[in-house]
């Protein structure tokens, strides 16, 4: 099964009031923490979607063999980054069986959890493998190619979440637990930094 990992890092992080992707936890940027996990999942076919502050962020990427995709429409929400990735694959004639969507602001997700998602996808290639939150399904998520055309029609910041939950009868989730906190503000960042020092 040929999976593309799509790390979404295009947002302007207005709530953080700084370039969130470049904020550091234990010496590593939020984006590089996610990219390192992506490279542990697989060595090749790891893509990073950039938008706001793209040049500065691209220069900060430490992992090797990361292909960056630029999203001109990043201000219109997260869904535009997914669409940018799919359009890039189409234009480059790259054929994947699924995309594994990760966010650059979820630093606490365990690699074991992500590996369990990938394993579940390999056993159930036509199912959406999504993360179960208390009231909904969300990212990280693996979406098979049978949904790519439908994904191209999503919009806004909640487009992906709405899409996943509209197809919840086709969703499977890992049995493993993980910390899927996403960090949007300086307060959340500082609280997380303190939590890992305990």
Itemize the secondary structure elements and their pairings.
Elements: E1 3-9, E2 24-25, E3 28-29, H1 30-41, E4 46-50, H2 54-60, E5 66-70, H3 79-91, E6 98-103, H4 111-123, E7 128-132, E8 137-144, H5 148-151, H6 159-166, E9 171-172, H7 186-195
Radius of gyration (CA) equals 16 Å
Distance between the termini: 40 Å
SSE arrangement, N to C: EEEHEHEHEHEEHHEH
In spatial order, strands of the major sheet run: 5-4-1-6-8-7-9
- Indicate the low-confidence ranges by residue numbers: none
- Structural class estimated from helices and strands: alpha/beta
Question: Number of helical segments?
Answer: 7
Proportion in β-strands: 15-25%
Global mean pLDDT: 95
The level of helicity is 25-40%
Number of strands: 9
């Amino acid at each position: 099964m040929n999976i593309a990992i799509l790390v979404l890092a295009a947002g302007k992080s207005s709530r953080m009031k700084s370039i969130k992707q470049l904020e550091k936890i234990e010496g590593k940027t939020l984006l590089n923490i996610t990219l390192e996990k992506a490279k542990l999942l697989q060595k090749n076919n790891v893509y990073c979607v950039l938008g706001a502050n793209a040049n500065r962020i691209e220069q900060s990427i430490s992992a090797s063999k990361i292909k960056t995709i630029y999203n001109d429409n990043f201000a219109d929400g997260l869904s535009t980054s997914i669409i940018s990735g799919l359009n890039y694959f189409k234009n480059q004639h790259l054929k994947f069986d699924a995309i594994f969507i990760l966010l650059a602001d979820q630093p606490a997700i365990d690699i074991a959890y992500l590996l369990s998602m990938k394993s579940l996808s390999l056993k159930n290639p036509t199912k959406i493998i999504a993360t179960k939150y208390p009231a909904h399904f969300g990212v990280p998520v693996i979406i098979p190619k049978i949904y790519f055309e439908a994904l191209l029609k999503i919009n806004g910041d909640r487009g992906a979440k709405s899409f996943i939950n509209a197809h919840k009868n086709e969703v499977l989730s890992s049995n493993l637990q993980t910390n899927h906190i996403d960090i949007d503000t300086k307060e959340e960042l500082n609280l997380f930094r303190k939590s890992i020092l305990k």
